[in-house]
Amino acid sequence: MFNLFSSFKLFPSLHHWSGYVICCSVCVGYNNSSRLPVLVSATQKKLIKMIKSVSRPSINILKRLSSTALSSQLEAETINSPKLSKEEEVLKHPDYFNVYNLFTVRDLFDARVHYGHKEGSLDERMLPYIYGSRLGHIIFDLDKTAEHLRLALNIAAHIAYRDGVILFFLRGAQNSHIVERTAKECGEFAHTRIWRGGIFTNANKQFGAVTRLPDLCIFFNTLNNVLLQHTAVRDAAKMSIATIGIVDSNCNPNIITYPVPGNDDSPAAIEVIL
Q1: Cα–Cα distance between 170 and 160 in angstroms, integer?
Q2: What digits encode the pLDDT tens for the residues 56-93?
Q3: What is the pLDDT of residues 7-28, one digit of tens each?
Q4: What is the Cα–Cα distance from 107 to 147, expressed in whole angstroms?
Q5: Tell me, what's the pLDDT at 233?
Q6: What are phi and psi of 172, to 5 degrees?
Q7: Are 169 and 230 in contact, with CB atoms under 8 Å apart?
Q8: How many CB atoms lie within 10 A of CB 269?
Q9: Phi and psi, residue 129, nearest 5°
Q10: What are the residues facing 260 on neighbouring strands?
Q11: Max Cα separation, the chain?
């Protein structure tokens, strides 16, 4: 309830108004349903209109001020924020090279990536990646294989994007032609023969000059035979070279930087990963 007589206290300037007669109290409100019929002169109408319009301009002004302050703050932050380089923008994107869509779990299953060695040859360090066994053979959890493979592909893509040197490894004549062909198509390097120890750790003496070591080593099998680990895996770990490796059920995944659990014997499994 807003009494017109109280307006003289709230609005001292109204004392300068003249020529109006106050007949009764007038209810002033935006949601007031009980309005009393009153005798209002033309001057009173101007007075009531002025009183009603007092509260709204303050709200509108506050809105304009707040929006102006917010826009000014955003402009200042935009001006002061450092511009990101192309490499930094690539790093901020979770899947800049779209490697997550290169394959599906069904593709891995059709290539027999889930098929491991016999139960008796299982390395206990591979247990987190095992789904179970069937007919005496280890079965990999392809959901975990897909997760690790996507991470490994993303790492390889980032290194290749920055002109890093990638070296492919495979021990065995059965699938060596697949790896060598892929390395040639990518403009990278491959080693499918016997690895001599010290090539990484003593490269300057081995080659007689300062030698650039690879930025990433990709192993399509991490064992020289059934029992012995590939010598280059150990040498790469000594020189802090990042490694990606397909680790079968009889392998040790701990020394590989980005292990990919799966079948490392089947040509179809290697081709789907390549």
Answers
A1: 20
A2: 545 555 555 556 665 666 566 555 556 666 667 777 87
A3: 444 444 444 444 444 444 444 4
A4: 14
A5: 92
A6: 140, 140
A7: yes
A8: 22
A9: -105, 5
A10: 246
A11: 112
Rounded Cα distance between 226 and 163, Å, is 35
Task: State the Cα angle at 78 between 76 and 83, rounded to 5°.
Answer: 135
The residue ranking higher by pLDDT, 181 or 70, is 181
Buried b / exposed e over 140-162, threshold 16 CB at 10 Å, is bebebbbebbbbbbbbbbbbbee
Distance CA 263, CA 87 (A): 34
The burial class, CB within 10 Å (0-12 / 13-18 / 19+), for 25 is middle
**Cα–Cα distance for residue pair 123/243, rounded to 1 Å:** 20
DSSP string, 78-106: HHHSPPPPHHHHHHHSTTTT-GGGS--HH
Output the CA–CA distances (angstroms, integers) from residue 77 to 82, 254, 268, in the order listed: 10, 45, 53
| Contact criterion met (CB below 8 Å) for 119 and 133 | yes
Spatial separation of the C-alpha atoms in residues 227 and 124, rounded to whole Å: 14
- Tell me the backbone φ, ψ of residue 260, rounded to 5 degrees: -125, 100
Give buried/exposed letters for 78-116 (b at 16+ CB in 10 A, else e): eeeeeeeeeeeeeeeeeeeeebeeebeeeebeebebbbb
The pLDDT of residue 214: 94
